[in-house]
Amino acid sequence: MLSVPIVHRRQVVYWRLLSAMFGYTEQATNFETMALEITREVGLPEYILDPRISIDTLLHHYPELETELNLEIPRDEPETATLRRGLIFSKLLLNAFGPNTQTNSCTVSQYAQWLKDVEHLERAMNCPRGSLRGNAPLPSTGTRQKSGAGGESVGSDGGNGAGMDIGSGFNIPLEEIQRAIKGLENDLIKRMALRELLQDNRLAAQLQPSMALVEQLLRDKANLSGNALKNAKRLIRQYVDELAEVLRLQVRQTPSGKINRSIPPKRVFRNLDLKRTIWKNLTNWNDEDKRLYVDRMYYKHTGRKRLPTRLIVVVDQSGSMVDAMVQCTILASIFAGLPDVDVHLLAFDTRVLDLTPWVSDPFEVLMRTQLGGGTHIQYALQQAAEKIQDPRRTAVVLITDFYEGGSNQELLDNIRTLKESKVHFIPVGSVNSSGYASVNDWFRTRLKDMGLPVLTGSPKKLIAELKKLIVA
Fold first, then answer.
1. Contacts 24+ apart (CB under 8 A), 4-10
2. pTM recorded for the entire structure
3. Same domain, residue pair 59 and 187
4. pLDDT tens, position by position, 271-281
5. Is residue 1 situated within a structural domain?
């Protein structure tokens, strides 16, 4: 290998990284053989190639490697140093993304090791602890020390666009690495024995609340008890509180319906239109005493059209709609806190659960739900219809993927009946941060033809629709 140019040997290191990352070491034995030769050439232990060995174990046997994990590029270093640094960085990436994370199930010890290995990757990239998992802000380009793994400096694209250059000009933005780490953690949690982990306060404290984690906890909450249940409730409440703050801000920032100009403005000081008042009275300016005499005051219209006073939220609690259920449960609690708005909350799968008594406490609502598999939308809408007193002053929000367990046509006819009764009917396919939704095309097409397009995507869309009807 000594006769092969260093740039080609460095490419071998990264091709071997890709093959090992996706579990193709047996099919790429040539890369394994050449990487082993390079490892011996630069004086690194063969453990550096084994993704199953944790970084802590590696450092326990070879503590002298700890200073090299920062991946900084010294001045005037020999070119062979890029090979050594490339192998070290490959080890960090393999432990964070490699075969250990791709098992069918994830044990608590595997998850604990993964957390520590990600911390080593964060230190190597000069990132604050927890930042790649979303627990702390990423460093900005200006504050982050530049380092690399392939002989080139770290590139950047402005703002938080700093990244790690792993050779040959291939730059990985920190945001991309963070997204990958967060997605991987969500996947590990889905495959992990949560009950065992939640019994350990130290490990449970390291969990970052996320939608994936909340979904798992809601599915398994009936099987939890003692310390595990206590930690599960803490994580769910933390996620609910954090999301509620975001949604409250969106509710405050969204315009609250159209100004109703048929109602005269209230003649109070806070409604005074000072600029218009001065402009309209300029003809009354007295040049002798330098005063403007006002004979008419102008006020701004602030009254907004108020339509419904009753909001009925009907949310699908089947397994495919967990994200929407969590988001809309929190939204219902926020709107329930508005004056003169009577909010009712129904959750359904094959049964209908009236959660109205707890609508102001989304955590309590979620703890009372039981995720199911079937979907009988018709039953839920029938129960919602019983709560309608004045159709013109009622909004019904139906959140589901519209895969009905009963008759599609019968459900569509009932929706048409609600619309014709002058109820403000809002069909919602999903409410989530990703914007992805799978909605029954049969219903999507026919509801659109009825003038009821199915909303999907960010909660902001639903908030905007609701605030057209309800005024805080």
1. 6/79, 6/80, 6/82, 6/83, 7/168, 9/34, 9/38, 9/83, 10/82, 10/83, 10/86, 10/150, 10/151, 10/167, 10/168
2. 0.51
3. yes
4. 788 888 888 88
5. yes
pLDDT tens-digit map of 21-60: 887 777 778 888 888 898 898 899 998 998 888 898 898 8
Give one DSSP letter per residue of 371-403, joined into a string. Answer: -BS---HHHHHHHHHTT-S-GGGEEEEEES---
68 and 33 in a common domain:
yes
Query: For every residue of 180-214, which 3-state class applies, written as one string?
Result: HHHHHHHHHHHHECHHHHHCCHHHHHHCCCCHHHH
Cβ-contact 395, 426 below 8 angstroms: yes
Residues spanned by the domain of 360: 310-469
Q: Are residues 264 and 355 in the same domain?
A: no
Mean pLDDT of 75-100: 84
With beta carbons less than 8 A apart as the criterion, state whether 56 and 65 touch.
no
Q: Do 155 and 13 reside in the same domain of the chain? A: yes
Is residue 8, in this structure, part of any structural domain at all?
Answer: yes
Residues 295 and 330 in one domain: no
pLDDT one-digit tens code per residue, 237-247: 888 888 777 76
Residue for token pair 């109070």: 268
**What pLDDT is recorded for position 276?**
86
User: Contact at 8 Å (CB) between 315 and 308?
Assistant: no
286 and 314 share a domain?
no
The residues that bridge with 291 in the sheet, in sequence order, are: 286
Task: Say how far apart CA 280 and CA 297 lie, in whole Å.
Answer: 9
